[in-house]
């Protein structure tokens, strides 16, 4: 998950973010003021107000400083809105009269006008209808700058040049869109599964060899006890052989245990490479419904049966 820049609300409590250029950010939930205008959401209200004042005869230095080099900001903003599918959208229109999709596209257009070095988009297609999503896809396809997009929208992820996944505290990057990541992920998981099978076979082999060796060792020890009890050889020789056998048995057990431990560690290591992504855990607050009442209805687009389990 990409965190917002330090200057934005919701910045991480720890760590640092370093950038050599400017960073723009489109949050997942836009914070809008009542009666905010389209120009304000685009971030051009200051330049636009100063430009209109100059056109009305103002010679104030602060107005010229506010405009800077953006003398064509009005026409550039309208052209950018048109290219995003927001044709004839008035810059003075209250944002509260826009749909959710129009609001997100307007905010994205503002980031495009700002020309930041890097722009971060946090789940930009959430709550957009099909038409707004397509216009957003078109806008991102035509984007000429650097974009970092956090999303679960597979169609959007197919537009990316690189795909990064944050999993278990580690970030991995794959060149290409989401389909390239999926292909590599599946290949890695297949290789991990094969490596796990091989490691488990080796573990069973080492365990079997330890049992066989311990069985042979126990048999020798029984023969040795019988010889000792029957006094078939001089006592000093038998005591010496007993001591040597104990040392040899201890060494053998240590070697066998070490091999089994190494095989177990290898199997555990390979097992950790196997991902369990087929479970979805949803932590819901207590709905305070009586037993037997319907809380939610889940439907599978593929017709797959789904088992839902909950804690009692």
UniProtKB/TrEMBL annotation:
Keywords: ATP-binding, Coiled coil, Nucleotide-binding, Repeat
GO-annotated molecular function: ATP binding; ATP hydrolysis activity
Biased composition (Low complexity): 10-20
Coiled-coil features, chain-numbered ranges: 182-216
Signal peptide (UniProt feature, chain positions): none
Region called Disordered, residue ranges: 1-20
InterPro entries assigned: ABC_transporter-like_ATP-bd, ABCF, P-loop_NTPase
Domain ABC transporter: 20-126
Designated name of the protein: ABC-F family ATP-binding cassette domain-containing protein
Organism: Brevibacterium luteolum
